[in-house]
Amino acid sequence: MQNLSKVQRQCLLKNSNVDRITDKNVFYTSKFKIMAVQKYLTGANPKEIFEKAGINPDWFVDRYCQSCLKRWKKKYHDQGKESLKVSQTGKK
User: Fold this and answer.
1) Segment holding 32, helix H or strand E
2) Were 19 and a residue from 27, 37, 38, 57 both cysteine, which residue would form a disulfide, CB within 3.0 to 4.6 Å?
């Protein structure tokens, strides 16, 4: 992820789909992840999913939205919808 400006960070934190932001990552709510994967599975464009959720894809590196959805979709298929409700960050 590229560095976000202070204004971009503040804007993202106001978005109800964003849980928190660290220096290296943006963490999204489980509700957003599940909704995004379900829309993606019906053929929606990854960038459009983020845009409609009020998240500007241009603030991130190229293919960021697609990478997130690809990762979330794999977890959704392998472990089920409930797996997106649990944060595995920092766990081995």
Assistant:
1) helix 30-41
2) 27
